[in-house]
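Example record used in the benchmark description.
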Amino acid sequence: MKILLPLLLPLLSSPAFSQTYEPIADESFDYAAGPLGGLNGGFGWENEWWSGSSLSDGFVVGSSYDPIGQRMEVGVDHGGSYRLIDRSSLGPILDGGQLGADNTTIWIGFMMKKETMCDHLYGGLSLNWQWVGEQVFLGSPWGTNEVGFARTGAPTHDVVPGSDDALLNTMVYRIDFLPGDERVQFWLNPPTDHPTTAADLDVMVADFRFNEIRLQSGDGTAPGFSFDGIAIDTPAFRPIYIVNNAIVGSVADFEVSNVSPGSSVIIGYSLTGPGPTTTMFGDVDMTPPISQLPTLVANTSGIASFSAPVPPSLAGATVYTQSVEILGGGLGNLSNSLVVNIP
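Model output (structure tokens):
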């Protein structure tokens, strides 16, 4: 990416945005209408959607519940649509390769509605352990017509009294993975993605781990539940690197947050491939030759940032990029990696 480097050197600046949570996975169903199976958009997934042998246990339909794409509707009674989460760069929050290490927190949000005329008796998003089974069911437990969650194998479920699964609901869950049992909090239609008010439900459940989600509804004949705006994230546990507006003819914004104020930050990049490549800071997701931008210094808010125009010569390029906070003594704290496709 040497053609970009001269353009970046004189253009250091400090865009006013920051990030406290690291995205793990998201899905807004930005696809053409049709069967869900085999589609591969969104962020943070290890594979495409599996939606039955016919690919149509779930369908992409309009209109969207969130600002992006369309929405997903369950198309078959008890038909599950599954997607495995990419955990390759999440080592510090994993337990045996699965999400749910003790003393970590994961937030899960999505929008859900039982479709008009739907007669399904349950519907929701399950946290699965692939080939092991469902761990926790988030949504409308069987026969309640209300919303909340249920721990697989537990004798009861927990729902918000007076809630209605036939309404378009925004569901937000916070799961604190603790030594022993886990704490699950649920907010129904909160005003923020990470509410700090008292939860509508706050329950301890048996210890679990997960690596996959499933969207499913059933015990009826009419079309099922719909889902949209799935977002899974965690409090930042390393430097968070984001690139916005990387479009030819526009000014791209680069930011590394969640670092110590005054610390040095380096951004590396490659046009060659995703690595991995072993460096003094650990394995990075870039293939040699790897270049780097001039060292940045984090401001008092722990943010290092700059902006630069994207030249026409980069149209169609794929840039593999990652940053590192320099800790001294030859050590560094690697950020998440990014694959930036420039339109």
